[in-house]
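Amino acid chain
________________
===
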Amino acid sequence: MGTSFLLLLVLITSILATKYVSNKIDPPYVAPTEEQQQELARKAKAAAAAFAFLSANGRDSKIDSEAK
């Protein structure tokens, strides 16, 4: 009886330790707050604008170099 109780405690302890370590390695997903979502949207718009600007300038310089 004592051995089975001891093994049960070891099993429960190992399960809890495994959950703790896995949460430290890969924490559970936490949804971003409204402010964080707005910040991500602003960053995405800025990246899209920068990409459009750079790609438009890249095409213009190719056209200018071909015309010379």
In short: Residues 7 and 13 are 10 Å apart (CA to CA). The chain has a mean pLDDT of 87.
